[in-house]
Structure formats: C-alpha cells, structure tokens
TrEMBL record:
Alphabetized NCBIfam families for the sequence: ruvC (TIGR00228)
Organism: Ruegeria marisrubri
UniProt KW DNA repair keyword: yes
Family classification: Belongs to the RuvC family.
Subcellular location: Cytoplasm
Protein name: Crossover junction endodeoxyribonuclease RuvC
GO CC, alphabetical: cytoplasm; Holliday junction resolvase complex
Length: 164
C-alpha cells in the first residue's frame, strides 16, 4: 500500500510518500509545496495544483493528513484550516481514502512521546525509513503522518499488531 502523508500549511505544505508492506515501511519520496504572494485564492490554488502533481507522480492508494490544532493566533489557525481544506478537497477529488490524525497521536506513534520536538520526529522518521532525507521539517512531519496512518489507517495493515 502506498500512503501519501500531508502536513498542511499555507506558506509551506509538507508531503511524504511511503510504501507499507505488512510490517515493513519504505520511503518513496517527500517534498514541500510553497505558496507565496498576497492573494489567498491564488495561494490556495497553487497548493491544490502542486498536490495534484504529487498524486499524479506517485499514485498513492491512501492519504493521511494532520488535524488542525487551535492556537492563540486565530487568524493563523483559520489560514491553516483553509490550506487543510484545499488539501482534503484535492485528495477527495483523486478518490483517495483519507485518515486524519491529531499532532500528538502522530508524535506518540513515531517518537513514543506525544509532545516530541520537531528534531525528535525528524530523527525517528530517518530511523524508521532508512535512507530517507526529508527536504525539511514539514516533509518529515508529513512522513510521520504517513507512518501513523500505516499503523492506524482503515486498511489495518498489521503494523501495530506486528510490533506489539
């Protein structure tokens, strides 16, 4: 099963693709989608088009995305939600089943601690996907989201049971 993980962001959206074969995981690709400028609609369209390209290039079977967390900056949370909405729409248009995971669940799955730092996530992603060189922290987070989906996704790929 090929899984596309997405770490939503308006300026930088991270993505990562992994293969899950039973209890084995392998890295396929990862990267960043950037949107610049002042026009929100154009930035969201740019993210949509870039995600479409990733889906076309890597043909995932399923997708996973991080749930939005509410922080003190209400405007920032709203913009993050809009970027996440565009990502969800793009995944739905591609016909991909999508798993949604809270940031703490992703960190606990990959690192073992729900409040892990970004450096810890990056380190554990590299350990679990040998040879992987994430193109940035957002790409590492996207790979972590894909790993979380391999454990808990709708296909029940057996990773959780295999490691128990």
């Amino acid at each position: 099963m090929r899984i596309l993980g997405i770490d939503p962001g308006l300026r930088t959206l991270g993505w990562g693709v992994i293969e899950s074969h039973g209890s084995r995981l392998s890295h396929v690709a990862n990267g960043l989608c950037h949107s610049d400028g002042d026009d929100l609609g154009e930035r969201l369209l740019s993210l949509h088009n870039q995600i479409v390209e990733v889906i076309a290039a890597y043909e995932p079977d399923q997708a996973a995305i991080e749930q939005t967390f509410v922080n003190k900056d209400g405007a920032g949370t709203l913009k993050l939600g809009q970027a996440r909405g565009v990502a969800l729409l793009t995944l739905a248009q591609a016909g991909l089943p999508v798993g949604e995971y809270a940031p703490n669940r992703v960190k606990k799955t990959v690192v073992g601690v729900g409040h892990a730092e970004k450096e810890q996530v990056l380190h554990m992603v590299k350990l679990q996907l040998p040879g992987c060189q994430p193109k940035g922290a957002d790409a590492a987070d996207a790979l972590a989201i894909a790993i979380c989906h391999a454990y808990y996704g709708p296909s029940k790929s057996g990773l959780k049971e295999a490691r128990a």
